[in-house]
Design a protein that fits this description.
heterodimer, A: mainly alpha, Formate dehydrogenase/DMSO reductase fold, 17 helices, B: alpha+beta, Alpha-Beta Plaits, four-stranded mixed sheet, two-stranded antiparallel sheet, 13% strand
Chain lengths: 418, 287
């Protein structure tokens, strides 16, 4: 059967990527930064782009989950826990990516003992640490009741539930109500935290006045909207393939698809504004950056990957009356959007750096580290592939382990959609 | 690679240059032992002088003296011949690895000239009054010293995130990827020759600072005495300025109105790069 083949190939791909990535992981810790291709002119590369991509997916998924846990919108109820779970998995992937990027990974704790309150990066790290703790806690309270109900399931699943419950086995309706209340409070705190930390990621780039292509007030907002689009899009895809989602979440997939379409339109408006103002202003650092994105050696990352695959094709699918009511087509389109936003992140980080700050600097000193040309090394690619593989495995395990909550929500959903 | 490029000077395997000096392995060892001794002696001198051997945290870097200096440079582009001796001298002094060069020589940094005469300019760190690299550091590992305005990096605190490299408008910062010149690979005696930077005398040890750190020009602050003063006559002077063949690099204290650099600013027309960013560099160019 084809769905079984799909599942098998999913696991094979996930495990294969993790094995390939673990070679890069070992190399990173044996040879430190030697086998990376970034340098002192392009000091941030693939790993930073991948990091802001995943952290955007996480913030986006989390903010969508707040529709359920803060704003109590019943239509999205069935995917609330999935949204939280996606936020945890993608945050984990993001932190894994950025940990390899630090020259001294094991000094990361310095940010707590030597704080610099003027650094946007320090704020970002504090905020996502708080966010990580918060989102884990919220997920626990959201799942607690269903795990307690399922604790007597025979086999590993029941054992795992009992372990994760930490002794809390109360299945009474009062306890369930109190769980909901706590989750709601955590989610409410989480919304400003998520907005601050992902806006903070955007500010990290936006405040740098020596990089005119990034510098400006729109950047943090653009990051937030991009997070909502990409995180929402990933969530549509995940809710369609997860636990027989196409059947169970049919209406939710369509509704969320419409939401993603609207957010994508806002995002495109902002991107267009940046480009238009940038070109018209004719500041050389900005126009050089734009020319690099649209006509540089990696023109296809924008024209084919970001614009074609990630924007135009899904836009058509989400708008055409023949396809927009088909949950499978909507899920596919959203999958493409999620993949396309990686190109957007790459096009922010790398061309923004691949320019000489002073003319002639790369000719003045001949070294591969003093160059505006940057192509990620095999090790960098494999490391990121490993992170993706690990994410796939985590989603796979989640599909098997997460209580579907079908018993509880089935009635509600049918009631709402009726 | 231009004819004035660095590799001819620094990228050349030092073996080819070192061999004439060492006819046998034994004599090479002797010289290295000597070098180590010199290192140890300077270390002892530094301790004796009570100089900054303590970890360079912001507290330790504060001077006890009330004197406030503002070190900087005035670089005369009309005297610069583009010989790159400053680049070599800096590499020699600070033992910087491949891909790290605290100063470089730009050709036509101000764009093409109408005639065919090149305009060379050496470019160290500008030790800005408002350095954009400092506030972005998440762990306060890089800071501007109160006593003399030199922008430094605390290697033991730096986590290697490279945000400061991104923020610097002058590309004055370099990441140490842990690479070494062919003759100075790990576990060779050359790798143990310490760099006098910050008076810390660190060798090249895998995974240990300054590998994995961001590095930059320090105006050779390890040559200061305990009062934070340099001495040109005694040779305690930034290596690039000391070696400059055309005497194009003038170094000194802008807070001292009598200093060579202060006088030059009153006599000649000087410019600073990217003034619009409000960084207020402490390195001026005479054009």
């Amino acid at each position: 059967m084809s769905s079984r083949m799909l599942k098998t190939s999913f696991w094979v791909i996930g495990i294969g990527l993790v094995i390939a990535g673990s070679w890069a992981w070992v190399d990173r810790y044996v040879n430190a930064d030697k086998n990376t291709n970034y340098g002192s002119i392009v000091p941030w590369g693939l790993w930073v782009a991948v990091y802001i991509y995943f952290i955007g997916l996480s913030a986006g998924s989390f903010l969508v989950s707040s529709l359920v846990y803060v704003f109590n919108i019943k239509r999205f109820e069935s995917i609330g826990r999935l949204a939280l779970f996606s936020a945890v998995v993608t945050l984990f992937m993001a932190l894994l990516s950025i940990s390899a990027d630090l020259g001294h990974t094991f000094r990361a704790w310095h940010v707590l003992v030597y704080p610099n309150f003027r650094s946007p990066m320090a704020w970002m790290i504090w905020l996502y640490s708080a966010y990580f703790a918060l989102v884990m806690l919220e997920l626990w309270f959201v799942l607690r009741h269903d795990m307690a109900v399922g604790a007597n399931t025979p086999g590993i699943r029941g054992k795992l539930y009992r372990l994760l419950l930490l002794g809390s086995r109360d299945v009474s309706p009062e306890m369930e109500a109190s769980d909901r209340q706590i989750a709601r409070i955590l989610a409410t705190i989480g919304v400003p935290v998520a907005i601050m930390f992902h806006g903070g990621v955007g500010s990290l780039f936006g405040v740098i006045s020596s990089r005119p292509a990034w510098h400006g007030g729109l950047f943090p907002v653009l990051f937030l909207v991009s997070a909502l689009v990409s995180g929402g899009a990933l969530l549509v895809l995940v809710s369609a393939v997860f636990q027989d989602g196409l059947r169970r979440n049919r209406d939710t997939v369509l509704a969320l698809g419409t939401l993603v379409l609207g957010l994508l339109a806002i995002d495109l408006l902002m991107q267009f504004s940046e480009v238009l103002v940038g070109f018209y202003g004719n500041e050389s650092a900005v126009t050089e950056n734009l020319k690099l994105v649209y006509g540089g050696p990696y023109w296809w990352v924008f024209w084919i990957w970001q614009l074609g695959v990630g924007t135009l094709i899904p836009l058509v699918i989400l708008v055409l009356p023949q396809t927009r009511k088909n949950p499978a087509a909507v899920a596919g389109a959203c999958g493409l959007i999620a993949i396309g936003f990686l190109a957007l992140r790459l096009n922010i980080v790398i061309p923004g750096l691949a320019d000489e700050q002073l003319a002639g600097i790369t000719e003045a000193y001949s070294s591969p580290r003093i160059s505006t040309d940057y192509v990620p090394s095999a090790m960098e690619f494999l490391f990121s592939a490993g992170v993706v593989g690990l994410g796939l495995l985590m989603f796979g395990i989640g599909e098997w382990f997460l209580p579907s909550g079908e018993e509880d929500t089935a009635e509600e959903v049918s009631h709402v959609s009726a | 690679m231009g004819e004035y490029g660095v590799p001819e000077v620094a990228g050349q395997p030092s073996e080819t240059r070192a061999e004439p000096f060492f006819e046998t392995e034994a004599s090479r060892r002797q010289v290295v032992a000597q070098l180590m001794k010199i290192g140890a002696v300077s270390l002892a001198v530094a301790i004796g002088a009570g100089a900054s051997l303590a970890p360079l945290t912001s507290a330790a870097a504060e001077s006890t003296s009330d004197q406030r200096r503002r070190y900087g440079m005035v670089i005369d582009t009309r005297r610069c011949v583009g010989c790159d001796a400053c680049v070599a001298a800096c590499k020699q002094e600070n033992k910087t690895p491949p891909g790290v060069s605290y100063t470089i020589v730009l050709e036509n940094g101000f764009g093409e000239r109408p005639d065919d005469r090149p305009l060379f300019m050496t470019k160290p760190c500008f030790h800005c009054e408002h350095p954009p690299c400092v506030p972005v550091c998440p762990v306060s590992a890089t800071f501007k010293r109160k006593q003399d305005g030199i922008v430094v990096v605390d290697y033991d605190r730096c986590i290697g995130c490279r945000y400061c490299i991104v923020a610097c408008p002058y590309q004055a910062r370099f990441f140490d990827f842990g690479e070494n010149y062919p003759a100075a690979q790990e576990d060779t005696p050359w790798a143990r020759v310490p760099s006098p930077e910050y008076g810390q005398f660190r060798g090249r040890e895998k995974g240990k600072s300054p590998e994995g750190n961001v590095r930059k020009c320090t105006f050779c602050l390890h040559l200061q005495d305990e009062n934070g003063a340099y001495d040109k006559a005694a040779g305690r002077w930034p290596a690039c300025a000391k070696t400059c063949t055309g005497k194009a690099i003038h170094f000194g204290d802008f807070n001292d109105p009598e200093s060579e650099v202060s006088v030059l600013l009153t006599q000649r027309q000087a410019i600073r790069l990217k003034e619009e960013l409000g960084t207020e560099p402490n390195v001026y160019y005479l054009v």
